[in-house]
Amino acid sequence: MTSLHETALVWLRDDLRLDDNPALTAAAALGLPLTVVYVLDEESAGIRPLGGATRWWLHHSLQALSSALEARGSRLVLRRGPAGQVIKEVAAQTGAAHLFWNRRYGQPERNIDAALKAWAGESGLEASSFQANLLFEPWTVRTGSGGPYKVFTPFWRACLAGQEVRDPLEPPAVIPGPPQPGRLQAGDDLDNWRLLPSSPDWSGGLAATWTPGEEGAHHRLDDFLDGPAGEYGTGRNLPGTEGTSRLSPHLRFGEISPFRVWHGIRRRYPQKVPADVGIFRSELGWREFCWQLLYNNPELATRNYRPEFDRFAWQQPGRSELEAWQQGRTGYPLVDAGMRQLWQTGWMHNRVRMAAASFLVKNLLTDWRVGEEWFWNTLVDADAASNPANWQWVAGSGADASPYYRIFNPVTQSKKFDAGGRFLREFVPELADLDNKSIHEPWKTGVPDYPEPLVELPESRERALAAYQQLKDG
Ligand code: FAD
Predict the structure, then answer these.
(1) Quick one: what percent of the chain has pLDDT higher than 70?
(2) 367 CA distance to ligand 1 centroid (A)?
(3) H-only helix segments in 71-177
(4) Candidate CATH numbers 3.40.50.620, 3.90.1150.10, 3.40.630.70, 1.20.120.430; the one for domain 7-132
(5) Distance from the CA of 332 to the center of ligand 1, in angstroms?
(6) Does residue 257 have its Cβ closer than 6 Å to ligand 1?
């Protein structure tokens, strides 16, 4: 039973969409005046502040969401501060008797949500939470002995064998407007959050590459399924082509739901999913795997998953070495093209991420946390689970990690996956005039504006192998 003066509140977080948003749908279905709120929380204990590129994305994503809500007679209320406290205040101001949100899986976020749920219970409010951002919630996928999975393949097999992936929900047909004006103090102005870079504004390349928001996300999915998905098995390895979906920042901010992606594939291929598209679908599984790792290892971004790595002899990188890596001036074209792609567009191709990360961690023997932090600040898809899990995978300190002796050779990788040098030419224009052979090893020709290799590959490889061997020998 609801009373005449009751209202409802839905708190949106990394689920900045109207489509397949179970919390929003359930809140709207009550038919009560509805407050839709987003809180920028940089204060609660343990919350990792966003990096520069994700701040840029968030600004535009909130703008898109706000317009979509206004088009339906609703509006987005923005607040800033410790989220638990802010939500209590907004609930009190609006007379909310019902709170709704979609679940989160990081420890600090879960602490906030659990405390809020407890408070709601004590205060006579009804709080309801939903599964929206992961296909399989971490606590539902367990090994035979009840523990979490440490290896991807059995994890994903267990996911697929154990549960059906529910159908996505359509956006709510009607979203009730907010409570009477006056009950809710005005929200913040998005511009005042200063999420966009200024002096200098380095976001031109990001704006030229991306369309943050739900509409942009759905276009990406459609374009991908209509095109490159059919050859994903090969295309995903070629950084010079658009062979992957580029959905990662949209998934990161929940502008599209993984359920929508999953069923988008199923609808297109109701009989049998082709092998290439199946490989793409299992990449969504890696995302799930990373999140279950974070759920079970809340300190994944700061602590070695395999504790023996606490003894690893990382070298303190020299400032100029680190800057050369960050700025794409290592003298190795594939690494440099990737690092410049990251700086210009906020995204880097997965194969190149692996090569660039391996170069930092293995050839320069730099602690993976240094690279993780740089990616955190520069990626538009910087994700609390996928970023540290993948860095630890490259370093060998993580779950299901790359073996220590696997050291990506950036020259071999570049010859194999960018044979025609298309990717290298796009991001390292100094090399554009070299032929397809020389472009992978420019030091053999000598290019005036391009640096000499920062380290020798065979030597630095031997150094890395020795350090890893030392760890193994205890
Ligand atoms: P597609 O190939 O089209 O894959 C579809 C989706 O599957 C992606 O959007 C992503 O959500 C998921 N996915 C694919 N590969 C992985 C993977 N290895 N781990 C987890 N999820 C995956 N991905 C992030 O989303 N955020 C990060 O912060 C991030 N940091 C990384 C750091 C390193 C060092 C490495 C090696 C990889 C990292 N990845 C990260 C994984 C991967 O590189 C990106 O997800 C992928 O390149 C995104 O491009 P896409 O959307 O075109 O991927």
Answers:
(1) 98
(2) 21
(3) 83-94, 107-123, 152-162
(4) 3.40.50.620
(5) 23
(6) no
